[in-house]
Amino acid sequence: MRNFALEIARAPEKIRVQQMEAAEQLLQELEENRLYPYDYIVFRITGYRGDEVNQPTLLGSALLGDIVALIAIVSRTLDLSPDGMMDVKQAAKKLHVSLRTLSRLRREGLVFHWVLESNGRRRLGSSSAMLEQFANQNEERMKRASNFSRLSDEEKKEIVSFAMSLKGEMRSLSEAAVDISKQSGRDHETIRLLLQQQKEVAQLFRQTRSLSRTDVKEIEQELRVGTSWKELEGRYQRTAGSMQKTLARMRSTRLKKLDVSHVELDIFSRKDSEEVILGAQVSQNVTPAILLLDSLDFPYESSILHNETAVVSAMHLLRRRAKLLIKDIGYSPSLRVLDRIETDLRWSFLLQQQLVVGAMHSSLAVAVQHAGRPLQELPADRLDSLLKHMIQVIGETCSKLDPSKGQMVHKTPASVLDRSLSLFDQHSKPQRAAAKYIKIQLHCPFHQIVPWSFLLPTENLPVLAKKTSDELVQILSLRYGWSKSPKTVEEIASLMGRSPIWIARQLRAWH
Q1: How is 291-302 classified by DSSP, letter by letter?
Q2: Global pTM?
Q3: Is the pLDDT of residue 42 over 70?
Q4: Most exposed among 177, 361, 430, 509, judged by the fewest C-beta atoms under 10 Å?
Q5: Please, how many CA atoms are within 13 Å of residue 374, restricted to the half-sphere of its CB?
Q6: Would you say 20 and 74 are in contact if contact means Cβ atoms under 8 Å apart?
């Protein structure tokens, strides 16, 4: 159902609106205890009826939450007006329920749309009509939800008293809340928050402070130098599982901050676009990241001239896929999804690097024309700043190439650079001619062209891994693009006949 939602999200705007409305209509007709064939769901929303025989059947009670999520995913791609749309707190107040109960009701069929406010911020919203319709269709459920009372003062005193009676037992506040929750029938989180607010109670129990951002970065560094989870558990008073979740959230935060742009091409609307574009030999046979470059000794990428449309399409498709996945990252992100996003971004960089290298020779001719002499005659500092400027301009231009507009690798970047160098020359200080050409070594010269350079290797990892084992060399080659396109942990595990956990453990110190 999630993949189905993403397919709808890629359709033209008019189609997205129509299919979102059809999904809302279907939601009103679903029965919780009835089974629905998947092709029936697709037909009701899109009007398309497939001819596959073995269709999965979906239970109505599960479909309620899935279709609510589908509507939210599609609405996020539209700029819906916030007029008349209550936010989550207002909706909870109108229905006389808590925010936590409202979250449960969404999984039971309560629809919220993502709306766009005037300041550019998106938020969830639901209209009075939508709320009233749900309440009318679920009267018994809403009655139970609204009649659920908060803790009375007497109940609070009893809970605090019971917690005080546990004095002397070595347990955390959360563990005590679990025991009390079983006794009282109240929610564990409600009990925990109450106990946390009572100073005399909180002091009796072992509490661990929240991990700071510095702590998380330190844990990340410790793992890279080979520190075991057991040692980290003792140091930070956290289980390995909780620390892994915290690290995953930090990874997702970094990804959400990225500006991942792409050009939408017509071919992306095809259902088999990923298979056709990413499966092409030119998309798979990428060259690894260039880590050291002698100035002006750019490799010549002749294959780009014959396959640039395929390379550009693959680059944009990977960025597009990563961008869509980033939008859907939740609070507790899946490691598999994070790995897929990061792998796609690495892969798209290697394709973009090929385009930059392919554009460099025609661009160097433009640079010589502006300099008025061979670049070898420029002073070292002038040549260094010129090359970095060229790479940045060419990299940005290649990231936006649109074959449908006739833009080409050997023409468009050089044209943009021509205009850019005019301004660059105006702001450059005059320099004396160099006595002789001094070679400049550029370390990771193309990493600057993407905002996700932290995902890219800065050393020749397979060479370094030779000291450890040939198996590790193979893992790192597959991971970072020294052996065709970069691979996810699961893809490497499949190719090598190993478990994903074992592969992830080998990679821990090589991120």
Answers
A1: -EEETT-PPP-T
A2: 0.60
A3: yes
A4: 430
A5: 8
A6: yes
Stretch 4-8: mean pLDDT, rounded?
Answer: 89
∠ CA(29), CA(33), CA(35), 5° rounding?
A: 80
Residues 6 or more apart whose CB falls under 8 angstroms from that of 231 comprise none
Question: Residue 288 is which amino acid?
Answer: P
pLDDT: is 340 or 193 the higher one? 340
pLDDT given at position 427: 43
Q: Note the pLDDT tens digit of each residue in 385-423.
A: 888 889 999 999 999 999 999 899 889 999 999 988 877
Map tokens 């792409």 to a residue. Answer: 262
* Of 498, 443, 508, nearest in space to 476 by CA: 508
Residue 445 main-chain phi, psi, to 5 deg: -60, -30
d(CA 418, CA 406): 18
Write the DSSP string, 132-188: HHHHHHTHHHHHHHHHPPPPPHHHHHHHHHHHHHTTT---BHHHHHHHHHHHH---H
DSSP 8-state class, residue 280: S
Q: Please report which helix (H) or strand (E) contains residue 268, including its range.
A: none
Dihedral sign computed on CA atoms, order 70, 76, 80, 82? positive
